[in-house]
User: What shape does this take?
Amino acid sequence: MKRAHFIWLSLALALPVSASAQWQWIDKDNKKVFSDKPPPVDVPESKILKQPKNSSRVLPPSATTPTPAADATATPPKVVVPKPSGVDKELEEKTRKAEEAEKAKQAAEAQKLAQAKAENCNRARQGKATFDSGIRVARINPQGEREVLDDKARAAEQQRLQSVIDSDCK
Assistant: This one.
């Protein structure tokens, strides 16, 4: 029975120790504030009366920069910088694979475009050779009748074929 009383007594005495892990500071109305959380950023270090052991409050970067009006003898505020967690390797691998797939897709598109340009170039060169040879060239008009190109139409077609050659045959 004495052992149980001793355990209850030690637990009762340990309770205030856990409650002592609190912050105390004086707020802007000069009232004492007790909390288990650190004071707001606008409370200066000089107004903090008590803080838990092995803890410090995290200040934003703007609060850590000294102002010209700050006292030169004041100790700089403690800043806790959280350590970055490890990089997610699975996410990194998925991102790399997606980038590779996108590059492969772009390369396939570029190759397809290059093949189309090469085919257009060959057709334009063959057509230009036909018109340069001087033989008669006939076309079917919208009414379905066969028409032989005159000199003006022939020159216009040669010029069109030359512009295709200039743009696609590089």
User: Anything to note?
Assistant: The first strand starts at residue 23 and ends at 26. The chain has a mean pLDDT of 80.
